[in-house]
Amino acid sequence: MGLRCNLGMHQGDWEYDYSRSCDQTRRCTSCGNVSTRVRHDFGDWEFTDNRDEPNCASERTCDRCDETETDYRHEYQWVNYRELLESAARKPTSGLLEFAGAMATGYAASKIHPCSQVMACKRCSRPGDSSTLTTEHDWGRWQAGPYGQGTVRICGRCGEREERD
Ligand SMILES: [Zn+2]
Ligand SMILES: [Zn+2]
Ligand SMILES: [Zn+2]
Ligand SMILES: [Zn+2]
């Protein structure tokens, strides 16, 4: 019995026990130790939710043993925080309920900076980590500044100005 076996690092290949089973066995070629594990061969995740009121419930199935796994597979992207809160107030459906609840505890949409962005699922609007915000301005074109000095651009949403020489 070698040093590797003492550390639990046995040798040999894993083999499936049966053709339609995902149980695998390995008999160590060095010490004869028998280990078992389960290795599924899952296909792609597919949405199983109601498309009219999505919550991103998903399912995938193992090609070998037909075992099924379920999970929520959200597709997060940056969205405008204030618009998301406003739509949550208008339409408190499943995925937006958390945001509606956040508003009730004082997170009023009007207090949010108009250019704040938050991560939310593009399918069901479920918020991601709402402590992580970015600011994304809706900049207009660079124009000549006042008195022809430098250039300036203005955010069409919040009115912020940015100047450069
Ligand atoms: Zn071994
Ligand atoms: Zn399987
Ligand atoms: Zn989602
Ligand atoms: Zn802005």
What are the salient characteristics of this protein?
165 residues, alpha+beta, 3 domains, three-stranded antiparallel beta sheet, 3 helices, elongated, binds zinc ion
Tell me about this structure.
The strands form four sheets. A three-stranded antiparallel beta sheet has the order 1-2-3, with no helix packed on it. A three-stranded antiparallel beta sheet has the order 4-5-6, with no helix packed on it. Strands 7-8-9 form a three-stranded antiparallel beta sheet. The protein has helices at residues 3-6, 81-90, 97-104; strands at 15-16, 23-27, 34-38, 46-47, 57-61, 68-72, 76-80, 116-121, 133-135, 143-144, 151-154, 161-164. The mean pLDDT is 86. The chain is elongated and about 85 Å long. The longest helix is centred in the middle third of the chain and has 10 residues, at 81-90. The protein is built from three helices and twelve strands. With 165 residues, the protein is of the alpha+beta class. Residues 22, 40, 62, 64-65, 67 line the site of one zinc ion.
In short:
The protein has 165 residues and is an alpha+beta fold. The protein has three helices and twelve strands.
